[in-house]
Amino acid sequence: QLQLVESGGGLVQPGGSLRLSCGSSGKSLDDYFIGWFRQAPGKKREEVSCVSTSGISAYVADSVKGRFTISRDSVENMVYLQMNSLKPEDTAIYYCAALQANKCPTLYEYNYWGQGTQVTVSS
Q1: What mean pLDDT do residues 48-70 have?
Q2: What percent of the chain is modeled with pLDDT above 70?
Q3: Beta strands of 1-123 (E only): which ranges?
Q4: Is 67 strand, coil or helix?
Q5: At 58, is the pLDDT very low, low, confident or very high (cuts 50, 70, 90)?
Q6: Among 89, 72, 87, CA closest to 20
């Protein structure tokens, strides 16, 4: 059983940066595609980015392209989401998810989810 834990959320001013982390206790993430999702109040959960097992950024949503970067570190057993130039509309709970796959899964295919970390962008 894979248990994912997100961290790094918080309150940041517009234009600021945050780095979210997704880790697993005791089990390697190397064999998993990892996705970052977000859900704002009253909205559907949407995919932000996905990284392959080889570390290739396989998907980036248009709404964050050029501002968010996904990466993974096998030594640290972590997947990161670097978020720059944050906007108020980026405010949401951010989740990471994992699946053993050969391409970025859809939302409903992921079978492991973290508990989420709140990101609030406000002045």
Answers
A1: 94
A2: 100
A3: 4-7, 10-12, 18-24, 33-39, 46-51, 57-60, 68-73, 78-83, 92-99, 112-113, 117-121
A4: coil
A5: confident
A6: 72
Residue given tokens 């990471």 in the structure block: 96
Per-residue pLDDT reduced to its tens digit, 18-45? 999 999 987 999 999 999 999 999 999 9
Residues contacting residue 85 through CB under 8 Å, at least 6 positions apart: 15, 17, 67
SS3 letters across 50-66? EECCCCCEEEECCCCCC
Q: Which of 11, 32, 20 is CA-nearest to residue 115?
A: 20
Q: Which residue has the tokens 């998993």?
A: 32
Predicted confidence at residue 47, as pLDDT, reads: 96
